[in-house]
Amino acid sequence: MARHLITSALPYINGIKHLGNMVGSMLPADVYSRYLRQRGHDVLYICATDEHGTPAELAAKEQGLPVDEFCAQAHDAQKAVYDGFELAFDYFGRSSSPENREITQHFARRLNENGFIEERSIRQVYSPADGRFLPDRYVEGTCPHCGYDKARGDQCENCTRVLDPTDLINPRSAISGSTDLEVRETKHLFLLQSKLQSEVSEWVARHEHEWPQLASSIARKWLTEGLHDRAITRDLDWGVPVPADTWPELAAEGKVFYVWFDAPIEYIGATKEWADQDPENRDWKSWWYEADDTVRYTEFMAKDNVPFHTVMFPATELGVREPWKKVDYVKAFNWLTYYGGKFSTSQKRGVFTDHALEILPADYWRYFLIANAPESDDSSFTWEHFTATVNKDLADTLGNFVNRVLSFSKKRFGEEVPAGAEAGEPEAKLGEEIATLLAEYETQMEALQFRKAAAALRALWSAGNSYLEEKAPWLEIKTNPEGAALTLRTAMNLIHLYAVVSEPFIPASSRAMRSAFALTDDTAIWVTTDEARSLNSVPAGTPFTVPPVLFAKITDEDLEAYKERFGGAPE
């Protein structure tokens, strides 16, 4: 079987993420990883918190914490949420790790040796009160376009215009609040992407036909506009330091690498963090170095991250002139909006992942988000849509099927799977239908078409309900108890099949369905076509229990309470 390396966009350290972040990277990567593991592949799913950059320093300052302590606490808080969503990372690292520092500095040295880094003088805002140059985000003021008085030096959050610090009216330091600012000359390192334009274009051309149109079009747009040399250092206290053995003057000034330079390298760094925990059994380089022929690398990210991972990071890897693994497939997503508008922490609009878990178990969210993933275009979260999906697909189609089959069988035949008659034409017809639907589900999962995969999974669940309605064991038992027992035994085998194949979407509910049957040797990892046709993995005589209700319906009162707490449609 193939070796699959999977990464998702690194969540930034500053704050708990909303549902859009979850569905745009980490959750689909988890679903795909789980599926591949079930199909017998060797999978390594790597992610990490992205901890460097101005926002981390500012957030730490607001909380009155040293930035390293703030990041450590925030990493643990985010990891707890991802554990709650059952994201099965093989490793969830930190971009502030020694491993990432080591590899980032190695990349910088190699780029410099190969002529792709240049030291240049630029003019930058300096704050005498703070005794330091201020990165763009450390300068605040009034936006000249909309009058918003808390605009940053890189962009106005209110009107979204891109800004330069010198554009701001009444600029001030975000650190001290001082308005005594100057523009001085300072030196920074620039990555000469312009010299790598043709190589990156050739590399993208070899891969873009396989990528989703969203990913390939964004990469091509950047390349068409031309790659520009980019500053890759900043004046910050927190970050990967510029190595003194190569740039002693800049190192003495405390320069660190720009977060977008070191963050993608953290995929490699986190893999080394993982390997360093068990060096005798884990080889990080086998996943990243000279691995083009042995590893299939898939990245998951929202569209705003696509340029950095399809152009900027590949340019870095190409410029190093070493055989580092580059991405094979980029699964890009559009935005998930909240009633058509942005999620906003400051305005308390939208659902954030920690709050989501406070009100409903993870499987409700996992299924809804993947079934409505913003693949071809933006999709909108509304409480009405969420409620309808949960009630129809999860509570009625799947949950009700499981509950009524097991409850009715226990009531009429006891706590063991009944034997009943031999399978007949309806069961043969059902088996063929299940095998066909399972093949469709596999096809869509292999193609990373998550909405279509969810539709195929839903169709599998619906097939069980149709069979049950056709056979009507509650009527059948009155005249043909053996036939009713056959119907229920077949339905129980469907429940076990659902437990196995639904695991990537709803792992907790899958465990509950699977544990309902006291099978002595339940080692099924996946369901083969023949097994799907025969539906006999749970034999007669197997003890079973009726699990608690898998999915509770969301009531009208619940709906109104959620909208009251999180906000509904904008006025």
TrEMBL record:
Cofactor(s) recorded for this entry are:
Zn(2+)
According to the record, cofactor stoichiometry and binding are noted as: Binds 1 zinc ion per subunit.
Q: Where is this motif: 'KMSKS' region?
A: 342-346
Placement of sequence motif 'HIGH' region: 11-21
Q: Which GO terms describe its molecular function?
A: ATP binding; metal ion binding; methionine-tRNA ligase activity
Q: Where does Zn(2+) bind?
A: 143, 146, 156, 159
Domain Methionyl/Leucyl tRNA synthetase, by residue range, is 4-406
EC number(s) reported in the record: 6.1.1.10
- Where is the protein localized? Cytoplasm
Spell out the Gene3D superfamilies in the cross-references: HUPs, Isoleucyl-tRNA Synthetase, Domain 1, Methionyl-tRNA synthetase, Zn-domain
Q: Name one GO biological process term.
A: methionyl-tRNA aminoacylation
Q: Sorted alphabetically, which SUPFAM superfamilies does this protein's record hold?
A: Anticodon-binding domain of a subclass of class I aminoacyl-tRNA synthetases (SSF47323), Methionyl-tRNA synthetase (MetRS), Zn-domain (SSF57770), Nucleotidylyl transferase (SSF52374)
UniProt keyword list:
Aminoacyl-tRNA synthetase, ATP-binding, Cytoplasm, Ligase, Metal-binding, Nucleotide-binding, Protein biosynthesis, Zinc
Identify the InterPro entries for this entry: Anticodon_Met, Met-tRNA_ligase_1, Met-tRNA_synth, Methionyl/Leucyl_tRNA_Synth, MetRS_core, MetRS_Zn, Rossmann-like_a/b/a_fold, tRNAsynth_Ia_anticodon-bd
Q: Which family does it belong to?
A: Belongs to the class-I aminoacyl-tRNA synthetase family. MetG type 1 subfamily.
Question: What does the UniProt function comment say about this protein?
Answer: Is required not only for elongation of protein synthesis but also for the initiation of all mRNA translation through initiator tRNA(fMet) aminoacylation.
Q: What is this protein called?
A: Methionine--tRNA ligase
Tell me the gene name: metG
